Structure formats: structure tokens, C-alpha cells
Amino acid sequence: MSKRILVTGSNGQLGQELQVLASTYPDMLFDFVTREEFDLEDEEQLLTYLNKTTPDYVINCAAYTAVDKAESEPEKATQINAHAVRLLANWSAEHHAKLVHISTDYVFDGSSSIPYTETAVTNPQSVYGSTKLEGEQAALASNPEVLIIRTAWVYSVFGNNFVKTMLRLMQERDSLNIVKDQIGSPTYAADLAQAILKILASAHWESGIYHYSNAGRISWYEFAQAIKEVAGLACDLDGIPTSAYPTPAKRPAYSLLNTQKIQQVYKVAVPDYKESLTMCLQHLGVAKN
């Protein structure tokens, strides 16, 4: 019997990567919904859709992700990142469905010097981070069977992201200044999508919080250097401190995630960041031979 899977935020990076992989899981029946069909600000619409389609699984990729804009739109960010997540968790609990909810490294304050485990103390420093943490807490309180995956620095061949921005700017300009004192590891959305579908395809379900990002420890400056190298570009890159590039929302200075738990429990692959970056740039047709 096919598993019916509802994927919210299907126009986003992760949602589109899940669409690419959907055909490789013939025993799964996917419903990919956009904001127009499944608006997290319209709870009546959400319930109507859920009750009509009755999915076995919900993968919630939808979120308010405009990190800086959230500082001036806290109510909207709270509705999308927290209140709507509570609704999804409640519905899932009532209908014995499984919920996979995507969260973020922004729930941490960035003061650590070792990779964050799932049990590390949270202390968000932005509206975005606070609302995402509220969503996690609401989901777990409403449905103990929820599976939360925190990720970081997401990029893909789809949408707007750091990799595609760097490719464009490196071809338009002779030099770029890139922040060098924020440390983490990027996440290729295709890798995360594969990990999620592997979890759903398994007979195993162990709820709770998990971390997923690619392997490696780099700064944004080093990430830009890797993009330049793999793409064979000639732009000069200069590393600058965060203080030289002020933003409305504070970014974690350190957001490296410890991914051992998800590897051990679900046996998912966590490729090296450069290996995945190369694959993404090959898909974009810009990786040098």
C-alpha cells in the first residue's frame, strides 16, 4: 500500500529537490503543495486540505525564511514558523500521521566552539531563530512522534542561495568581500532530501530532534573560495569580519552541527561539503572539468 506524503513549501529549495527524487520512490504518493494551495497563514485552509487528503506523512519544508525581514515582521514569522507548525503537529497526532519538520541552526546563539548536538542549549539571537525554536517546541508538545531536522546554510540548483549568488557576482565583479568569521558547514538540499526520503522509506521511526548538514568546517569566505575553485572563476576574494557587514538580524558566529545521531539512527549519508558542492555546480553546468 502506497504511503501518501504531503510536502509543504514545494517551491522552495528542499521542496524542489524532493520533487526531483519523488519518481525514485514508486511506493510513495506525493502531494507537493505551494503557498497558494497550502498557506501557513490561513489555518482554515490548512485544515481543509489536510482533512481532504489525509496524508500518512507530512514533510514541512515551508517556513518564513527572510531572516532580516523577520525582524520587522515578527507576527508573520511567528504565525508561519510556530503557530502553523503547532497545527500540523496537532493534526498529525490526531490522525496518526508522521510529521517531519525542518528547523535551523539559528536556534543557537553561535557561542560554541564544538559542533552543536541535538541536546545543546538553545538561545536564538534573532526573530527568525526565536520563531523557529517556538515551532520546534510547539511541535514536540503537540505530537511526541514528530521528527525535527535542523539544518544550516542550505543551497541547491533551485531558488536563491549563497552558491548561485556567488557564481553571479564572481562573473560580474573583479573582487568581492566575504564574511570570514562565521563558521559552519553548508547543506546541499539534494542530500537532505535524499536523507528524508530514506528515513520515510525505512520501517524505522525514532522521533525527536536531529541535525543534518554536509561534513566539513568552513567559513563563508572559505565556501566562496571553494565555489570559485570548482567553477574555475577568477574573481579576487577578500575575507572581512561580520562587523564590516552589519545586518538587521544577528547571525550565529558558529553554527556547526553534529550529525552523528542521524547517521547512527537512520544510516543516512553525510557527504563532504566540497563533494556535494561539485555535484551541484555540475548540475548547474559551471563546474570546470
UniProtKB/TrEMBL annotation:
The keyword NADP applies. This is dTDP-4-dehydrorhamnose reductase. It is an enzyme of class 1 (oxidoreductase). Coiled coil: none annotated. GO terms for cellular component: cytosol. Catalyzes the reduction of dTDP-6-deoxy-L-lyxo-4-hexulose to yield dTDP-L-rhamnose. GO terms for biological process: dTDP-rhamnose biosynthetic process. PANTHER family: DTDP-4-DEHYDRORHAMNOSE REDUCTASE, METHIONINE ADENOSYLTRANSFERASE 2 SUBUNIT BETA. Pathway: Carbohydrate biosynthesis; dTDP-L-rhamnose biosynthesis. It comes from the Bacteria. InterPro entries: dTDP_dehydrorham_reduct (IPR005913), NAD(P)-bd_dom_sf (IPR036291), RmlD-like-bd (IPR029903). It comes from Leeuwenhoekiella blandensis (strain CECT 7118 / CCUG 51940 / KCTC 22103 / MED217). SUPFAM superfamilies: NAD(P)-binding Rossmann-fold domains (SSF51735). NCBIfam families: rmlD. CDD domains: dTDP_HR_like_SDR_e. Keywords: NADP, Oxidoreductase. GO terms for molecular function: dTDP-4-dehydrorhamnose reductase activity. Belongs to the dTDP-4-dehydrorhamnose reductase family. Its EC number is 1.1.1.133. Residues 4-284 form the RmlD-like substrate binding domain. The keyword Oxidoreductase applies. It holds the Pfam family RmlD_sub_bind. It catalyses: dTDP-beta-L-rhamnose + NADP(+) = dTDP-4-dehydro-beta-L-rhamnose + NADPH + H(+).
